[in-house]
Amino acid sequence: LAALGHRVTAVDVDAGRVKSLREGIVPIYEPGLSELVKKQVAEERLFVDTDTAKATHEASTIFIAVGTPPAKGGGYDFSYLFAAAENIAKAAAGPKTIVIKSTVTPGTGSRIAALVEKLSPKKIEVMNNPESLRGGTAVQDFMQPDRVVFGAASPQGIATLREIYQPLIDRGYAIYAMSRESAELTKFAAN
Description:
Blueprint: E1 8-11, H1 15-22, H2 33-42, E2 46-49, H3 52-58, E3 61-64, H4 79-91, E4 96-100, H5 108-119, E5 124-128, H6 138-143, E6 148-151, H7 155-164, H8 166-170, E7 175-178, H9 180-190
Parallel strand pairs: 1-2, 3-4, 4-5, 6-7
Helix pairs in contact: 3-4, 4-5
């Protein structure tokens, strides 16, 4: 997103990882990612921090991209996802948009929307924009996507994602706008 021209603050709970990322050291091997991170940090479009509250205050749109590992007994463990949404809702000082990138089962976004509505008096829209990245080609997959899926409960949500992804739209990449649940199912089926 920073390479598309946006100011991005990435938040991680691991202070050591944050320090490394600030230096352009990426904890995984992904061709082109380290160079991309270094360039965006140097151009002051990418910032890395451990302070979720600060990042939430400064952002209008917050992407959640956390692991959803297999749960004991089947399905997914959404504890990291719900914890991130809870932290954002508690820190929100005004209207926000939460965009879920993680793999989830259909209906998870509705459960997160109910949680943030209960925790925050501010208007927080929850959307789904599932990842379609493969290991070894993730940078290329993002910058030259086969498809970009937007799932939202309102036309304003779709408009927000269109604005963020406008550079890719201008290059002619396919954008599919649908309901949040349909986007969740699309990703689940693609996996």
